[in-house]
């Protein structure tokens, strides 16, 4: 088993939590002033490079990560060693609260798809906030309920959509997650293999279907970059 977090690069200077985007966007918004000061003093900040693993399946979670910058993928490996990307987690979100609360080892891995900055909140502090601050525990519960709903929708999408429909859905989802750069290309750099594992298909069939979408003028492809040309048409296809 990996020892949680020690392999990531510890950042020298730790920023305070008061103005942090994760505090604004996540359940941490329910913490009071004293708790936020305590959080600033007990958390550690890390740099995670693209491709580095934050935690793996089977790891014991000794705390949760706050995503300050960058995006990671949540990956599940099957018995044949094939991985599926279940979700992308972006800046402002927390990572690992399900395993910490359930006291189970992690059943998923988290891997950076771009350079990230994350903070680590130890389990002991998190559980003190959880037990002493009702508003915070309600917010965490709401988050986990929302994630359960998402997980249900994900599995229903995979069951009822064709591969092409899932690819259209994934491209729209990536646009929602990351937006577009000034040239209109998706603002997240994923390999064709990563797109295929998000869609749930082989890389070759993903490449073939991307070419079909391009031929139908729904998307533009330049090297690894993808631009959605007709959002409405792609949305019709995804549904
Ligand atoms: N839909 C989702 N399915 C699984 N994990 C999710 C989802 N959304 C967010 N997550 C986060 O990803 C984390 C993976 O590790 P945990 O299961 O401990 O906690 C999970 C949540 O913090």
Automatic annotation (TrEMBL):
Xref: PANTHER family: CRP FAMILY TRANSCRIPTIONAL REGULATORY PROTEIN, LISTERIOLYSIN REGULATORY PROTEIN
Keyword Cell division among UniProt keywords: no
Gene3D superfamilies linked to this entry: Jelly Rolls, Winged helix-like DNA-binding domain superfamily/Winged helix DNA-binding domain
Name of the protein: Crp/Fnr family transcriptional regulator
UniProt source species: Paenimyroides ceti
SMART domains on file: cNMP, HTH_CRP
Residues annotated as domain Cyclic nucleotide-binding: 27-130
InterPro entries from the UniProt entry: cNMP-bd_dom (IPR000595), cNMP-bd_dom_sf (IPR018490), Env_Response_Regulators (IPR050397), HTH_CRP (IPR012318), RmlC-like_jellyroll (IPR014710), WH-like_DNA-bd_sf (IPR036388), WH_DNA-bd_sf (IPR036390)
Superkingdom of the organism of origin: Bacteria
Domain HTH crp-type: 161-232
Assigned keywords, A-Z: DNA-binding, Transcription, Transcription regulation
One Pfam family cited in the UniProt record for this chain: HTH_Crp_2
CDD domains (alphabetical): CAP_ED (cd00038)
């Amino acid at each position: 088993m990996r020892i949680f977090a020690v392999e990531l690069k510890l950042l020298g200077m730790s920023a305070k939590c008061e103005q942090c985007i994760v505090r604004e966007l996540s359940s941490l918004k329910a913490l009071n002033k004293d708790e936020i000061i305590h959080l600033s003093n007990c958390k550690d900040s890390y740099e995670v490079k693209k491709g580095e693993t934050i935690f793996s399946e089977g790891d014991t979670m000794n705390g949760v990560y706050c995503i300050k910058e960058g995006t990671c993928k949540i990956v599940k490996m099957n018995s044949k060693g094939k991985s599926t990307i279940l979700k992308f987690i972006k800046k402002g979100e927390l990572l690992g609260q399900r395993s910490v609360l359930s006291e189970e080892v992690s059943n998923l891995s988290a891997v950076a798809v771009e350079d990230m900055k994350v903070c680590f909140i130890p389990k002991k502090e998190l559980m003190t906030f959880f037990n002493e601050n009702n508003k915070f525990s309600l917010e965490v519960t709401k988050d986990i309920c929302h994630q359960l709903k998402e997980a249900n929708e994900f599995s229903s999408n995979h069951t009822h959509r064709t591969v092409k429909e899932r690819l259209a859905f994934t491209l729209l989802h990536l646009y929602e997650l990351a937006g577009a750069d000034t040239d209109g290309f998706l603002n997240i750099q994923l390999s064709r293999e990563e797109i295929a594992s998000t869609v749930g298909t082989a890389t070759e069939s993903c490449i073939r279907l991307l070419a079909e979408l391009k031929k139908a003028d729904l998307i533009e492809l330049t090297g690894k970059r993808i631009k959605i040309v007709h959002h409405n048409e792609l949305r019709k296809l995804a549904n």
